[in-house]
Amino acid sequence: MQEELNIVLESAEESMVKTINHLELELVKIRAGKANPNMLDGITADYYGSPTPINQVANVTALDARTISVQPWEKNMLSVIERAIIAANIGINPQNDGSMIRLFLPPLTEERRKELVKKCNGEGEQAKVSIRNIRRDAIEDIKKLQKDGLSEDVAKDAEASVQTLTDRHIALVEKHLAAKEKEIMAV
Description:
Blueprint: H1 2-29, E1 44-47, E2 50-53, E3 58-64, E4 67-72, H2 78-88, E5 94-96, E6 101-104, H3 110-147, H4 152-185
Helix pairs in contact: 1-3, 1-4, 3-4
């Protein structure tokens, strides 16, 4: 019985860690005024009939704080990558010079910064909901174990540790959001 309880707790913690990792990946994609090659993660170009991430068909680098360069490994991919970036609607117009694509990030306005903070908060709220759902599922599993013969005291302790785990991960979400908001609002 204790072994099954440990499996429930470990599974809940593992899922919460995955949620935090996903949040970190999503927050990296939200630009904060500085050029970051990861901003193009998730954008795919049609590479000989199959959608392929841009960073797998081109070299993506940050030239300086406001410029990202995309150097395709094959010349014929230039226009395909350019169309994919335009279609992704990330708010940046690509500049194609015939050998590489440059993305110039405009300075963020106060209004745009606030929109980005709202977007970050939305991602954070999704992460919190996910963590709470994991908590709910873990507590349901503990209650099932209790019906199968787990003592009430052990079940209460397990529920308390699930709640502690939940609180710790929600605090982590808040910490990530505060750091990203500070990064975005820095002029």
